[in-house]
Specification:
single chain, mainly alpha, two-stranded parallel sheet, 56% helix
Length: 95
């Protein structure tokens, strides 16, 4: 099986900007945007959260790193907890 295609950081940002513009254009300014910020590292997820906020996202959602790293991270509850806490602390929008 090949690796699933993922959006680049700039593609994610472009989609958020386009989504916010489309919603605003039809007077749905109050409709929130939730952006996916899951990545293989905490650092990358934090950067994606910052980019999403700057692009107009209101909330962020992250996939656990175990999705990428398999049981190495998923079986380590302390590392998993730290991953989410670090992202939540650094994110300018709620995660």
């Amino acid at each position: 099986m090949g690796e699933a295609p993922h959006l680049s950081a700039s593609e994610r940002t472009s989609l958020i900007i386009a989504g916010r513009a489309a919603l605003d254009e039809i007077n749905l300014n109050a409709v929130p945007i939730m952006a996916g910020i899951g990545a293989a590292s905490t650092r990358k997820s934090i950067q994606l959260a910052k980019d999403a906020a700057a692009a107009g996202a209101d909330f962020a959602i992250a996939i656990p790193p175990g999705y990428y790293a398999g049981p190495l991270i998923a079986d380590n509850m302390a590392a998993l907890r730290t991953y989410f806490l670090d992202i939540a602390e650094a994110s300018p929008i709620p995660v």
